[in-house]
Design goal:
Blueprint lengths: L3 E8 L5 H13 L4 E6 L3 H14 L4 E5 L3 H9 L3 E11 H9 L4 E5 L6 H6 L2 E4 L7 H12 L14 E3 L8 E3 L4
Parallel strand pairs: 1-2, 1-5, 2-3, 4-5, 4-6
Antiparallel strand pairs: 7-8
Helix pairs in contact: 1-2, 1-6
The protein binds S-adenosylmethionine (SAM).
The site of S-adenosylmethionine (SAM) has 16 residues, from strand 4 and helix 6.
Length: 178
Amino acid sequence: MGKVTVLRLGHRLHRDDRLSTHVGLTARALGADEVIYTDDKDDAMLASVAEVAGKWGGKFKVSYVEDWKEPLKEAKKKKIKIVHLTMYGEPLQKKISAIRKEKNLMIAVGGAKVPGQMYIAADYNVAVGSQPHSEVAALAVLLHEYFKGKELAKKFPKAKLRIEPQASGKKVIAGDRN
Ligand code: SAM
């Protein structure tokens, strides 16, 4: 089994709390194994993503490094390919078959401003449509395409909470039947 790591560039304390939380939650829910946050250290935001992961099961690692270049260097050493999501990149639909051949991936998503070096470090600069939108949306579409929809049925073992799907209303139960 391969490993998918999401690298969140340029987190800004307070301003990006909600969006960065959603990057982590989306990464976890749609099949990634790990999120690494960079730039401002935000213990509360990291703790909130880790808390959701703890409650809802599965193995998901949440970590922080100040310098966004460090995880990229590590990935390069291990020959893990880097996909940078950017509206300026090549269309996802043209690159997805090559990306699917990669067993391990590091997916970089930007914040307010993405340094030029990111475009050079990436093995693939990929656009999800050539319009500006959101790192959360771009990440979700890439993961969905990469896993071909299988991520929607991913199991999350050792969950403390589990949803029992309902046609109407909400049902959350304790325990793990995944
Ligand atoms: N203006 C910033 C820059 O320097 O490129 C990007 C800001 S955008 C709100 C934040 C992030 O959303 C981007 O870095 C990228 O990861 C993602 N994003 C937004 N639109 C995208 C698209 N069409 N395709 C892929 N990624 C996208």
